[in-house]
Batch of 4 targets.
Target 1
Amino acid sequence: MGKVINHNSRVQAAFFGEEKNKVIIVDDFIKDPSLLVDYAVNADFLASPMLRQRKGYPGVKASMPKPDADALTKGVEGLIRTEFSIPDTAQLNPPSSSFCLMTVPEMQLGPYQTIPHFDTSRQSFFAALLFLCGEEHGGTGFYRHNSTGHESISPDQSDSYLDSCFYELNNKKIRKRYFSESDEYYTKVGFVPAAYNRLIVYRGCLLHSANLTSLISLNPDPRVGRLTANIFLNFDLEV
């Protein structure tokens, strides 16, 4: 871990929305992000699961080199345990990590890809996103669902929230675009700009969306497009 993580990185916390949901932002997270970019350039990217059904992540994914993936995961795990008060006794379930590139043109998006989403309602599931691209790629936005008032989704809210989303999607004209600013259904409550070698960490139950400011973000070249390293960690604990 010591060879990858920059222990002089800058850590700050942001609290978004009425729920004051915590998002951790770490600048200069790793020592040499260019090594990961170089690896991604030669990696085999494959369509993300459910892409043919126009669901899930709208792009392609590739495996990260295992030593770096393990080091990044260990660094993120320590950060989460500290910042979100996860006890040492809480077991970390097998994590997942990958390089990700958004590639789907807006006119090919499925309905659920045009609105904010949550990864899971499990409160001890965390998402970590390391930007391996610059500020020209927008960032990540966080949202409130206007009709329910939810900014995060708990297990007992999941079914009713999804029912509401389904109703809204079937009773409005779907805009074929990546979601960014507020509309009549969602209010933007927070935003973290993209920055090279910036890590953001948040609970996967938060409503969020990639915010794109230019179609350059859909370029499949890892040196040009919206390249990120995504890590998901699930602790065996309900918090």
Target 2
Amino acid sequence: MAFIVHVKAYHLPGGWGLVSVSPFCLKLDAFLRLADIPHEAITATTPFGGPKGKAPWIEHEGRKIGDSTFIIQYLKNRYSVDPDAGLTPAQRGQALAIQRMVEENLYWAMVNDRWNTPANWPVLKGSVLGGIPAPIRAVMAPVARRGVIKQLKGHGLGCHSAEEIAAIAKRDITALSAILGEQDWFFGPAPTETDCVVYSLLANVYFVGFESPMKAMIAAHDNLVSFLDRFRDRFYPAL
């Protein structure tokens, strides 16, 4: 009998040993591996095929579902699987707080490093947008960059100086190191969704070809570096 793939997961291109250079796409991919949900990973050159105009998204049973958080919640319900099942209500609250810090604050510091740092822009343009034909990319890239910088300012982080943004990132990274402590995973002996969230963002700083103060901040915490290596060895041993 032929094996049937139940979920088609679309993500932005990868690089530097990562399945995707988008933290949200990598988060979903990591969760699918953690939850052992059969799926087909499909690389999308642009995010515009998704129902929300962003990546990742999935196709499942005739539906398109966008946004990594909504997708993961859907998969938990549909497949009756929850890596967070053993967490207490207090731990679930802590997990949500960590997710918000990583995805709503630290993420934007990473975006600033990629899109608003002149030295990194050529590398980003050739990697994240590398799948787009060169003539189209030449027109599209500066438009996309202006749009992202506008989003940064709208968020508020883009209104700060480089030194102030680095200080914000340092507080978040230091907090993650303190929360992890000497544990293998953020909530004890087994990985949870929180580990997928943290890995997807930190890996997209530490392993990619962009130099930034954030990379040095992660390197300064041995437990975070060990966590990244541990997660990659367990869920991405072939990469």
Target 3
Amino acid sequence: MIIRQMTINDYEEVLSLWERTPGIGISEADTRDNMYRFLQRNPCLNMVCQMDNRIVGTILCGSDGRRGYIYHTAVEREYRLRGIALELVKEVLKRLRVLGIDKCHLFVFADNKVGQDFWKAVGWQRRDDLLIFSKRSGES
């Protein structure tokens, strides 16, 4: 297992994994150009796991300088239950600490039971005291 920093050269393989993973929502934010900007802004916080000469796991994380935010964590179905996602999470949290960021939040769709079960199993706490509101910046 090799865990390394994600680069834009990984884009097609990573996007393909996300598209095949139930519970991962792909949006306009995930285009190649937008991912390039995201990786430039958060150069050390996005990781892939390689096994058998292919990408089998990913974690997409960003920071606003105060908090970390995990967006897409995915592992190929046939590679699950090997600790890959947990190792990706540990690496990202370690890198956030190096940046002086001591808290990280993540986003899971309400109907993604597999994702919710994973995060609970590895010690993350569901928050019921917050709601997320969204709006596109081009709307008035």
Target 4
Amino acid sequence: MTLSLKDIERDQVARIRTLTTGAFETANAIDTILAKTRIKPEDRATGEVAELAAPLSDDTAIGGPFVEPETTEAFDNSLVALDSALVRLERARTQAKSLPFNNPSPASDITSRFGNRLDPFLGRLALHAGIDFRAPVGTAIHATGPGMVITAGRTGGYGNLVEIDHGNGITTRYAHLSTILVNVGDKISTGQSIAKSGSTGRSTGPHLHYEVRLNGQAVDPMRFLNAGIKLTQYIN
């Protein structure tokens, strides 16, 4: 009976360690993906699986034919390590879900990417600070992450613009809209319909101009779109 109990407990410890390792590996994978978008993962545990206590030698064992004290210690240590791993994993998933990783117009093709290009109006080199999606007038545009609307209206060359603050210095911009469906101050959820595409402002035809900005500086939205695809297996 004693041996059976010890075998059961050892099996439980082994299973817990497997869960712990899996949780840390998943959290590490999420952190790696976030790092490629220039987002600094939140401060968390070290990610190392706690080492289990080494078995005591026979001459240090105490008691009769019961489970040895070191087994209980090992089991307790494994639970602590698992708890730490699960907390870290939950924080990683929460951070990933708070960022704009979704596609604003999933059924639309990308027609122009981020970077230097010939300006369609001036014919000289200029920075294209976002990506363009081919979207006929009236196409539904969706928020790429949760946040708060900080701009909703006519804004210079952007035409009708919606800008969402996602926290952590990250904002997204949705431009050339025909219709705006939200107001400044609205709290937005991921995937929520916020506008309809159009060709307002400095635009040669119907499309969506989409930007991601980090601390006010435009960054390539493809980093976030590609990261979103990779994160699907870890956060859903």
